[in-house]
Every structure is written in C-alpha cells, then in structure tokens.
Amino acid sequence: MIDLHCHILPGLDDGAHDLAESLDMAAMALKDGVDTIVATPHTLDGLYSNTLDDVSQSVETFRTALARNQLDIRICPGADVHLCPGMVDRINEGRAVTINNGGKYLLLELPPQNIPPQIKDEIFSLKLNGITPIITHPERHPAMQRDLRILHELVSMGALAQVTAMSVTGEFGLPVRECARAMLELRLIHVIATDAHSVESRPPILSRAVEAAMDVLGNDEEAEDMAGRIPALILSGEPVEAAPPGRVK
Ligand SMILES: [Fe+2]
Predict the structure, then answer these.
(1) CA pair distance 140, 145, nearest whole angstrom
(2) Cα(172) to centroid(ligand 1), Å
(3) Does residue 44 sit within a domain?
(4) Beta bridge partners of 235
(5) What is the DSSP string of 205-246?
(6) CA distance 35 to 117
(7) Residue 100 sits in which domain range?
(8) 8 Å CB contact between 133 and 108
(9) N or C: which end of the chain has fewer CB within 10 A?
(10) Domains held by the chain: number
C-alpha cells in the first residue's frame, strides 16, 4: 500500500515530534503493509512555511536514518497545503510542495470552519496549470458533512478527494464515519490515506480502513485501489480516470 498523506517528518509541524517517533511510525506503517509514504507536513502562512527546500532536506535526512535502522520503506516529498490565494504561484516559487514534487497533484486542505468562495477559482487555476488538487478529509469538514453537494461540485470540476483512514473506521466518531461512508458510496472519494500524526493517537494504520471500505463499496478491488493503484498513479504524475460521482439526493 501507499500512504499519500502522513505527517511523518520530525519537527516540521504538529506531526512526529522527533526522529525516534518518525522511525516508530515508519516501522508501524511497514508492519501494516505500507511500502511507500508521502511525507506531507502542513503548509500554512504564519504557522508552517515548509518550503520545497525544507521538505527535501528533511526527507533526505529521514531516508538516511531509515536505512541506518534497516527500515525498508520509501519516503517521497509532499505537503498538506492549506488553501490560500495564489496557489499556482506558491507552487512555482517552491513555497508549496506538490506530491513527489511532480507538479501534477497537490494535497489541499480547506479552512476548518467554512468553504471560502475563492475555492472554485483556485481549483480552476490549478487545473488550468496541469495540477489536480486532492481535497483532504472532506468527511471531517462540517459544511461538507451537512451538504454533500459541495464536494460533488468540486469533484465535478476535476478535483479528487482523500478520506482519512480513522474516519472510515469510526475513530473520529459516528457522524464522521457516516459521512465518510456516504462519500465512498457516492464515489466522491478516490484515495484512502492515514493523515497520521503520531504513534499513539493518530497512527499510520491503513489496512483496517481499506477493509472497512471493502464492506461499504461491496467491491474489494475498488477499495484496494484507493490505497494502491490510484496513489501509485498520483505518485508518478499519471492521470487518474475517476468514475463520475453518483447523484446527491
Ligand atoms: Fe494532514
């Protein structure tokens, strides 16, 4: 499996505190069947800058530490980029890191309390520049929980969406789990990732969510694709042929 969203780099954000925790998270992911992790620290003005240089350097150091500890897991650069004006310029200037620094896919997090009106302009502009935004954990966003048409509209514009593993398995509570399941059923979700932050409270466990998604979708292969084939295409910058989402009633 490939984990496309993981705060595993030490000390860059509110994820792993130090190298020891990063290594423990990597060992845990490996044991769960993950062979590739995209390291995606928060990128948010005034709080976490995490430029391309910062992330690349941290990934290099972490790769060396993994090898020294005989942990055979692949780490790729990325970022969990919070929506802000001028996303394309930020990417071109190395102030927001695309997945695997490939310039094709970007993890995009929305502000927690609202859906800013400029979201559509930003998605349009990203797509125009050949970059597909992947909306992170829409099932945990109150406005999107209330109205599935919001995500439906963004996906119809060409965005993809990533559900968080612990949402599908119910560890964020029942309303989040129900929303995650409804989004999966409507084929509004394309990727399952851990969005792990730690060993204890937000661990990098992906397999249980894939199993739960198999039940929801009634299709094992489709669930496995969300943590395997589709993230692999995203990592290599290839197009993802997403089935059109179902109609929101
Ligand atoms: Fe995240």
Answers:
(1) 7
(2) 14
(3) yes
(4) none
(5) --HHHHHHHHHHHT-HHHHHHTTTHHHHHHHTT----PPPPP
(6) 38
(7) 2-235
(8) yes
(9) C
(10) 1
